[in-house]
Amino acid sequence: MTTVTGTLTAPGGERPTDATVVITLVDLAGDPVAGYTTTREIVGTTTVTPDTTGAWSAALAPTADITSPRGGTLYRVQEHAAQRRVAVWYISVPATGTHHLSTLLVTPPGGATHPLMGYLPLTGGTMTGPIVLPDASPAASEAYVNAHGGGSGGGFHLHTQTAPSTVWTITHTLGYRPNVAVADADGNQIDAAIAWPTTSTVTVSLSAATSGTAYLS
Predict the structure, then answer these.
(1) Residue 115: inside a domain
(2) Which range marks the domain in which residue 37 is found?
């Protein structure tokens, strides 16, 4: 490990109020990235609190020893003070020794080779594993929906009853006994008695002869 040092001071030379130093491994575009060496994995951030004089130090893995999924890496050093005052530096850490921050400064060259990990691009991309909803329940797969609520008919069937009748007999290809919503010719939902004689047949019984639509899902 290599020791990096610095001294964080206010303009008058005193230690700034609420001083902290946050160090993050980043890719060459400056985005946080995980990495590893032969002896350790590097994730998250390191937070250092300067002493009463503003001096701080941190032991960091040399950047040449780090492998990441996005190629080369640097460290981003953020020196924080009160009222959200932040100085941001990028450094490349050599193999050995103790070095002051000012001797290690570099400009990120940019050019990270792929998007942030954990996000899908706006087009394309492949997501693996389950999708967990906010209530901690898993999202239904396409296969589950097709088997229990989607069916071979695309998940719904719309029946139009043009001739007024008290009983509508509906044949569908959903492959299961669906939910049924009934509306009159003006689009107003109406009450009806629903029966499922078979998995491919629904009957809608009404108190008066009515035309309209039935939505099966």
Answers:
(1) no
(2) 2-103
